[in-house]
Amino acid sequence: MRVKLLGTAAGGGFPQWNCGCALCARCRRGELPSRFQDSVAVSGNGRDWWLLNASPDIRVQLEATSALAAGPGPRDTPVRGVLLTDAEADHTLGLAVLRGGADLTVYAVPPVHEALSTALPLRGLLDRYAPWRWQDTDPLTTQGSTDRTAAASAPFTLSGGLTATLHPVGTKAPKYVAAPATDVPWASAVRIEDPATGGALLYAPCLATWPDGFDDLLASVTCALVDGTFFSAEELGQAVRSPDAGQSLMGHLPVSGPGGTLTGLARHPDLRRLYTHFNNTNPLLDPSSDAADEVRRAGVEVPEDGRELTV
Ligand code: MLT
Ligand code: MN
Ligand code: ZN
After folding, report:
1. How many structural domains comprise the chain?
2. Pathway involvement (predicted)?
3. Nearest 5 degrees, angle CA 244-CA 275-CA 41?
């Protein structure tokens, strides 16, 4: 399977339009690579491509990736649809950019589609341009289980020869949802397998905790692309004096520290491991930082936009 990293920044991108921090300033001076907002494209055959999340930067991301260029017919595109890990603005506003695209399918868990019908009503709006298939993923029913947040989806097939499942990893709702249900799986990890090669990718850009079963999920894949939003728990509070800075961090487990994702990933040395969804405060954005050195020495990659992985 081919995996293209279309964007590796958290919401706002890097640099962020309203941020004058030292890292964003260095990025604007061309000293650090800029990054689009988090999105991935995967293909089993190089002709049918599926997006994992649709960032508001998607138009430029598609244009920057020759495999995803439109053609050969005047309205042909290799983009077949989108799998959503969550309903966050940075992962869903790109759907509006794709308006008018014929014959697309959007896969997500029911609460995400519900949010896209109500609090952020893209669904009805987009169907007026071209009707899409909004496909709720069915939970795999486990006998005796009553925990609505725990069930993985039943596997579903993507054109081009891939098999996908969504795995609940968190219950943090998007900020724009006024009174969110707290007991539903707002955040999922996507697992994509290529049955032809046995390669499997896990994409988990929103990890508020290291969820139960996540080690088993990592052990079931050959490559993992994991939430690297913040390097440290203090980082956002230090960068911006915002009353909800600490709260925002709660949606993303930091890389470093006891219980950070780097400790968890260290248990899986046989796996190709990469971080993504970097916030503009993250010292990993600077390859010469101590943070970047620590992550490299742990065998975990900090990829730039445009990186292609063969999984
Ligand atoms: C997140 O990753 O926590 C969200 O995208 C934050 C946001 O609303 O930008
Ligand atoms: Mn985000
Ligand atoms: Zn900044």
Report:
1. 1
2. Cofactor biosynthesis; pyrroloquinoline quinone biosynthesis
3. 105
Q: Domain of 50?
A: 2-310
DSSP 68: G
Of ligand 1's listed atoms, the one at least distance from the Cα of 10 is: 2
Ligand 1 pocket member 60 (CB < 6 A): no
Pick the residue whose CA is nearest to atom 6 on ligand 1: 11
DSSP result, 279-290 = -TT-GGGSTTSH
164 alpha carbon – ligand 3 mean position (Å): 35
Q: What is the pLDDT of residue 304?
A: 98
For residue range 38-50, list pLDDT tens digits in order: 999 999 999 999 9
Q: Are 264 and 283 in contact (CB under 8 A)?
A: no
Q: Do 207 and 103 meet the contact criterion of CB atoms below 8 Å apart?
A: no
Residues 124-181 pLDDT 10s: 999 999 999 999 998 876 666 656 567 899 999 999 999 999 999 999 999 999 999 9
- Residue 83 · residue 105 · CB < 8 Å: no
User: Is 175 a pocket residue for ligand 1 (Cβ < 6 Å)?
Assistant: yes
> What pLDDT digit, counting tens, does each position of 255-308 carry?
999 999 999 999 999 999 999 999 999 999 999 999 999 999 999 999 999 999
**Pair type for strands 199-204 and 187-194:** antiparallel
For residue 226, what is the domain's CATH number?
3.60.15.10
Between CA 158 and CA 54 the distance in angstroms is 17
Tell the residue number behind the tokens 């728990």, with chain if given.
Answer: 233
CB of 251 shorter than 6 A to ligand 1: yes
Q: Mean pLDDT, the chain, as a whole number?
A: 94
- What pLDDT sits at residue 147? 62
